Amino acid sequence: MIVQACINGARPRDFHPKLPLTAQAMAGDAAACVAAGAAELHIHPRGADGRESLAAVDATVLAVRQACPGTLIGVSTGAWIENDVTRTRAAIAGWRELPDYASVNLSEADAPAVMDLLRRRGVGIEAGLATMQDAERFVALADHGQVLRILIEIDIQDLSAALDEAHGIAAVLKRAEARRPILLHGVDATVWPFVELAHQKRWSTRVGLEDGKTLADGTVAKDNAEIVAAAVAIFRSLPAKARRVETDSCGAL
Q1: Are 24 and 63 in contact (CB under 8 A)?
Q2: Is residue 251 part of a domain?
Q3: Residue 252 falls inside a structural domain
């Protein structure tokens, strides 16, 4: 049960004045997030032009690892980054400074091949499920049990509809007995309700400028570290003698 910091994502430069876009900016920001209580880091490396780039993984992971020794670092493999299956696979195959894990979106056609490549490279996998269809595809994979964790990541902005989708994903996972650790997160309007839900279920969560720039009261956060600190405070409020549940495992919402 952890809070992961997602520090930039695909957000544009003008999304927030403290959005980290260079390797050194990400390293400094990541260190501040770890100091604020983040247990892990999820980053989207950028090239010299500021655009997301899988080719920039080596330099960025190295810089962040030097700033945050011992902290697990993950990256995205989103198909939109290289916008070409061959380039995506070639970039991953060429990584020299391997991240600890990488997220793979099951909505993308090449997801099974990307997952296989990551396994062969010794990189952990976060299986990203945004819909019930993603979940059905995931549990149909023969090696779905060989992932680091499952991300239930909902980008629907209507909270009721978002909860319904999350309910459906969890039901698919439970039916298939896909008992891998779960990290639940929302985007923008659903960030903080989903942090609270993850806290209640004793699942992991993530926060940061990739997912939203406001605090729970709607005010714009000054930086990633402030967002992380707020989420960590929620997670640390769990009563010491709380009933033990299936920590970070699949179950109904």
Answers
A1: yes
A2: no
A3: no
Is 244 part of a structural domain of the chain? Answer: no
Number of domains in the chain: 1
Instruction: Check: CB of residue 246 under 8 Å from CB of residue 160.
Output: no
For residue 215, the domain's CATH number is 3.20.20.70
pLDDT at residue 251 tops 70 = no
Cβ atoms of 153 and 128 closer than 8 Å: yes
Are 84 and 92 spatial neighbours (Cβ–Cβ below 8 Å)?
no
Give the structural domain span for 123: 3-235
CB 62 within 8 A of CB 30: no
The residue whose two tokens read 């090239």 is 47
The DSSP secondary structure of 51-74, one letter per residue, reads: SB-GGGHHHHHHHHHHHSTT-EEE
* Among the listed residues 89, 136, 151, the one whose alpha carbon sits nearest the alpha carbon of residue 114: 89
- Taking the alpha carbons at both ends of the chain, their separation in whole angstroms is 16
For 31, 226, 229, the CA distances from 36, given in Å and listed in that order, are 9, 7, 5
Q: DSSP state, 185?
A: E
Q: How confident is the model over 201-246, as pLDDT tens digits?
A: 999 999 999 999 999 999 999 999 999 999 999 999 854 334 343 3
Does any domain span residue 250? no
Cα–Cα distance for residue pair 75/60, rounded to 1 Å: 10
